[in-house]
Amino acid sequence: MSEMTELISKSFETPLGEVVCCLKSSESELEFEGTKSYENGKSEVYKTKGHQIELVEFKIKQPLYNGETVTDSNGWIWRIQKTNSVAEELETSCFLHPNNGVEFDIATGEHLDAIEAQTEEWTLHIGTEDGEILNYRAQEEDWFPKRLLDKVDFEQSITKLRTERVITSIPKLELNEKLHIQYLTAYSEREQESVSSWLAVDEFKNNLEKWIGIRQ
Prior knowledge:
Blueprint: E1 5-14, E2 17-25, E3 30-38, E4 41-48, E5 51-58, E6 72-82, E7 90-98, E8 103-106, E9 112-118, E10 122-129, H1 131-139, E11 159-161, E12 165-169, E13 178-189, H2 196-200, H3 205-212
Antiparallel strand pairs: 1-2, 2-7, 3-4, 4-5, 5-6, 6-13, 7-12, 8-9, 9-10, 10-13, 11-12
């Protein structure tokens, strides 16, 4: 992979440290094109050398499936479209700059790639879709190219989990192809029986879009 330059970075303050969501590119060119407002979110639109990128930011809908709530949350969706033939490489990631005393673990689930961070008082999760659900979206041509069907699955994904971060290598797209990548983060007070922050980051693309107001 070429040397990457950070073009876009957003952050979210938590009691465990600062969560950062960013995009890196093999090219340094970036043009801000404007903003959009949604019912439960907002976005910024950018143009890089080879792509148009909309970064949607939002809070996670509460209460959760089981009636639990989280203390706070933040979500980011990268909506990426290839606009020309420039061979630009992209990488997105979401990670925690931890405070002292934070311990990490992997917290994957069905359709979910996630990491967990804990202190004596707090639990935080960062999650994204796993390879299996990305492959399903390729099958449906739902913001994942059908051309990449069976190139990702449960055992192989474009996303890798590291101790403190979730990293996604954006596949090389052909002209006009679109890709949706989501990162959800939530934290709550640490309770023995509660999995609220884990549940909060385990969400399907279509449900998020309906909550935000991107689709009806």
